[in-house]
Amino acid sequence: MKLSIFFILFCALTACSSHPVLPTKKDITVSREMPKGKCQDLGMIEGRTKSVNGTTEDALEDMKADAIRKGANYVKMETMGALGTSVRGQAYFCE
pLDDT tens, 11-31? Predict the structure, then answer.
């Protein structure tokens, strides 16, 4: 009896899933395409370079950091500044 209760409890707890508590920048997908599947819109995000010699990659990394703060795992990139020192996009959490 105890074994079956333990098994039911184990199945119930493992069936509950959530996104990682502390995602990393490598967990973020950036694309110009709309996400596919079931995704929750988390709002606009942006990234900027921190120096005058910054690159577009620096701005993308900053945008990913903003996405992490919102709990996103997908970003639809929408605009890029004239010099590539700023980027904006829409953050999503996709299952």
Answer: 554 455 555 555 677 789 999
